[in-house]
Amino acid sequence: MDMRPAFPGAPAPLTPPVRVVLIEDDTDLRDSLADLIGLAGFEVLTGKSALEFYQILASQPFEIAILDVGLPDQDGFSIVEHLKANHHRHGIIMLTARDGTEDRIQGFRRGADLYFTKPADGRELVAAITSLALRLRATDPHPAAAETAPPAAPSAGEATGPEPGTADWRLDPQQWALRAPSGLSVSLTAQEMRLLGCFLTAPDGIATRSALLGSIGKNPVETEDRSLDAAIRRLRRKVEQAIGQDLPLKTVPTKGYQFTAPLR
């Protein structure tokens, strides 16, 4: 394997390669950045929405996330807040057209490591990814593996859950729908897709009130805002009326809500 830098001045690729997730809704920009990052020796996974990011987060290990702030379904700041609230150990680079000081401060307060304004210099972005990955690996030699460690095998006599896929609820981002284990589906609004997307990567299926509030466009700090509970009630009623089955969501006092069945 050729380990030379992809262009003059670029840092040499790391071993093992750094896996980067790039979320950008502008197709041309996403493709050009993915090509540049890939040529620099990184593995790249791409998506165009917050929902696609959460699906990658639930299924693929990675070290660095590059997030556009202005996504169509949930802003990048809310994704960062979700990652930090659920103790995910990823490096986070914000990539956005917003160049105001307040926007940059907000990004750092939410937990971003670096903030780039479009159009970002490709060499600087590659150097930033390398530097951030080295910093992460210095504190945790296997950060990506730690995020996707398989669950421990059950002890003798311990009950096991259903086989994967037999009792799963599924979010379908192409059809904007939630599919029940029975095979019946219910169409979802953009807000409902964002809300349910929070449960895809939440530990034990428990999403915090802050993360859920952010997903429906409310202030995540105002955790006493009852609009979240109203949105949950409407979603439960909608699912029950559409497919005749209860949505497996329960309240977790002082925390938020838990999706008690497998969701993917």
TrEMBL record:
Domain Response regulatory: 19-133
Low complexity composition-biased segments: 142-165
Domain OmpR/PhoB-type intervals: 161-261
One BP term from GO: regulation of DNA-templated transcription
Cleavable signal peptide: none
InterPro entries xref list: CheY-like_superfamily (IPR011006), OmpR/PhoB-type_DNA-bd (IPR001867), Sig_transdc_resp-reg_C-effctor (IPR016032), Sig_transdc_resp-reg_receiver (IPR001789), WalR-like (IPR039420), WH-like_DNA-bd_sf (IPR036388)
Modified residues (4-aspartylphosphate): D68
Residue numbers spanned by region Disordered: 142-169
SMART domains: REC, Trans_reg_C
Example GO molecular function: transcription cis-regulatory region binding
DNA-binding region(s) in UniProt: 161-261
Pfam families the record matches: Response_reg, Trans_reg_C
Name listed for the protein in its UniProt record: DNA-binding response OmpR family regulator
GO cellular component: a single term: cytosol
Domain of life: Bacteria
Keywords: DNA-binding, Phosphoprotein, Transcription, Transcription regulation
